[in-house]
Automatic annotation (TrEMBL):
Protein name as catalogued: Carbohydrate esterase family 3 protein
Compositionally biased intervals (Basic and acidic residues): 299-315
Entry keywords, A to Z: Membrane, Transmembrane, Transmembrane helix
Stretches the record annotates as Disordered: 299-323, 341-363
Organism name: Apiospora kogelbergensis
Pfam annotation, one family: Lipase_GDSL_2
Sequence ranges assigned to domain SGNH hydrolase-type esterase in this UniProt record: 118-261
Highest taxon listed in the record's lineage: Eukaryota
Family matches, as InterPro entries: Ester_Hydrolysis_Enzymes (IPR051532), SGNH_hydro (IPR013830), SGNH_hydro_sf (IPR036514)
Transmembrane segments annotated in the record for this chain: 23-40
Length: 363
């Protein structure tokens, strides 16, 4: 049997097949090596002694490494009551400031819009009325949404329904009517539905159980709106990663400063989700409404000049930082080359029993 196999393997036909397979294997191996080398070069993986450190490229999640929706200008209306105003916070900017700073930081122009100006940030417009229930805010929005047509609405409604114990079983119907109106008044809008914050206050309103019930309705309503293919995302303010009693202020209802920062983070995550789902669309053009809210005050020349100067300072600081990073990168390459040369010299010295060379200087 062995002799038969040897005879067959030596035939010209079989020998040609084996040779071709070996050639294909060799070409494939070289191809894989080239692909790996290209990947390492493309991702600029950090250096270490003995070769590049193997790191995965990772998933470039929209909004972290680049602007949302290819740099879409976001005209944002924050709608709600005292929490939307940032009450009990040190600057009355509330969650709006961290949301705006993050979005502009990644390259999206932002203009908060609304009939009121609350807080010490320049772009501080909003639609918020302390103590207002959901149907009241619906009525207020009828005066501002059709005029300003935001393409992103941040809604935090329902707390005062709970504090005033106003028809909690039918809350979802009032909220659904509000949602329906948002898209009728501003058809290009995306809605971020915020669930309510916990409350441990018991002396006046004792609304903790009602907040739990309203949040349950909001989550169920969000599922219904998803089935209807509405551009709506949920900003979950409660739960393990949400707001906890220790994040509330002295009144045990509004967030403290850390709580507002957390609200901003949660809303940002919801906006990223909206972008990932393809919800974000350009806002309808409205005369007199600019893309950049910091520069939307032509009547306030001093504020506009200050905003432009601040922008110029930020750009100069970014350029300075890029220069410093490039210098650090060059110095690291030089130092690591010295380290590699030292290791090679040390290895040669060890084989020849010579004294080891001095290590490279960090200076």
């Amino acid at each position: 049997m062995k002799a038969f196999i040897d005879n067959v393997s030596q035939t010209s036909y079989v020998s040609a097949i084996v040779a071709r397979k070996r050639l294909l294997f060799g070409v494939s191996l070289v191809f894989l090596i080239l692909i790996e080398w290209h990947a390492l070069e493309r991702h600029h993986l950090p250096l270490r002694v003995g070769g590049p450190m193997r790191l995965g490229a990772g998933y470039q999640r929209p909004g972290y490494e680049r602007p949302l929706a290819n740099g879409l200008a976001l005209r944002i209306m924050a709608i709600g009551a005292s929490t939307t105003r940032g009450d009990e916070g040190f600057d009355n900017n509330g969650f709006r400031r961290p949301v705006r700073e993050w979005l502009t930081g990644i390259g999206n122009p932002v203009n908060f819009v609304g009939p009121h100006r609350v807080g010490n940030m320049t772009d501080n417009d909003l639609e918020a009325w302390p103590g207002a229930r959901t149907e009241v805010m619906h009525h207020r929005a009828e005066h501002s949404l059709p005029l300003l047509k935001p393409n992103l609405v941040l809604a935090n409604l329902g707390s005062n329904d709970c504090f005033q114990d106003f028809d909690i079983p039918n809350f979802y119907k009032r909220y659904y009517q509000f949602v329906d109106y948002v898209f009728a008044a501003s058809p290009r809008a995306t809605l971020v539905m915020g669930t309510l914050l916990p409350t441990t206050e018991t002396a006046r309103f004792n609304a903790g159980a009602r907040v739990v019930e309203v949040n349950r309705q909001l989550r169920r309503l969000h599922r219904i709106l998803q089935k209807e293919k509405r551009p709506v995302v949920l900003a979950e303010m409660m739960g393990p990663d949400g707001i906890h009693p220790e994040n509330l202020g002295p009144d045990l209802m509004h967030p403290n400063d850390a709580g507002y920062e957390m609200m901003g983070r949660i809303i940002v995550q919801a906006i990223i989700e909206a972008d990932a789902k393809g919800f974000l669309r350009p806002a309808e053009p409205v005369y007199g409404v600019l893309q950049d809210g910091d520069l939307e005050r032509p009547q306030d020349d001093a504020a506009r000049a200050a905003a432009e100067a601040h922008r110029a300072d930020d750009e100069a600081a970014r350029e300075e930082e890029e220069t410093a990073v490039a210098a650090m990168e060059a110095e690291l390459k030089r130092y690591m080359a010295e380290v590699e040369a030292h290791q090679q010299q040390a290895a040669l010295a060890a084989r020849s029993d010579d004294p080891p060379p001095p290590p490279p200087s960090l200076a």
